[in-house]
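Lecture notes, structural biology module. Today: joint structure prediction for complexes of two components.
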Amino acid sequence: MLDPAQPYARRSSVRLPQLAWIFLRLGAFAFGGLGSTLALVQRDLVDKRGLIAARDVSDALAYTKPLPGSTGVQLVAFLGWRLHGWPGVLLASLSFITPAAVLMIAAAAATAALPDTPWVTSALVGLQTAVVGLLASAMWRLARSEANTIDLRVVLLLALGAGFFVSAALVVISAGVIGILTTRFGRQ
Amino acid sequence: MLELVLRFLLVGTIAFGGGQAALPLVERIAVAETSWLSPQDFAVAVGLAYATPGPVLILAAYVGFRVSGVLGGVAATLAVFAIPVVLAGFAAHLVTRFQQARWFVAFGRYAGAAAIGLLGVTLTSLALPVIEIHPALLAPAALILFADQRGLPPVLLILIATVAGALVGLTQ
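The predicted structure, tokenised, for the full assembly:
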């Protein structure tokens, strides 16, 4: 465990309002998920402002990847801690999700109020079609990068089969327990 | 409202494998188990979640709004990110200890792989209504898959597909 008193080179060198503004902008421009969030963090916080080191970013990615939840937000929370401790965590993640949350609530209100005309219906079919393609693409990409052993591919396929009959939470948790059991078994 | 918050807290807690891998969990709770959203509405919500900046799980804001207005949108958003954010804060705080928790890493890898498998279930439930409208729509879907693999931005692809849809609608 790190000594909490250990001085972080850049910790608290940024004031909270500035931190909020940095992550609010990041949240407004990080289109396209984790990849673009990483690219923007690298460009803005590491290269341009020098607030954090590339090492902080790779640490953040390595240690939040195994945790449950949206990795992009967790990356931001982790960096928030390095910059300003717990207040940094809360402020950075809240600022980061605010633009998207505002847009989504507005979109939910707007789509509920859409007129039922043929062109609107057919535009939404276009959107649905795009989502099918994008989701298939995301699944393919994730399967290749995350399920990179035979064991994990078997788990993936079993989960796919089981998912049609059992609750998703149960499938995910059972798979995790199998992971613990087989890993311990392999080490003995 | 309480149910909404509890369900999204659960999604955040078991979302191993990141936000996209958690889409099936949201689909289960919002469409299959509660009918808060219709399958079509869910597909639109996922499209918008891809089109907006930031995390895909911002989908929670959409579902929350549909259940109980602006307050529901805010509550569901906070609920889905609360536990992951706190965990990330602790991870930053206790970096070396987490590195040693190999059982936790093993749990996460397997749970993550399962979550990716579950994406197939979600994909099926989103593709079926599209096929029902017209099986030929699978061709543009495949084209978008291909374009996304080649690195074209998803926002652009969504925009093109939506405008193309509207144009087809106008000519009919």
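Point to remember: Chain B has two domains: 2-133, 134-172.
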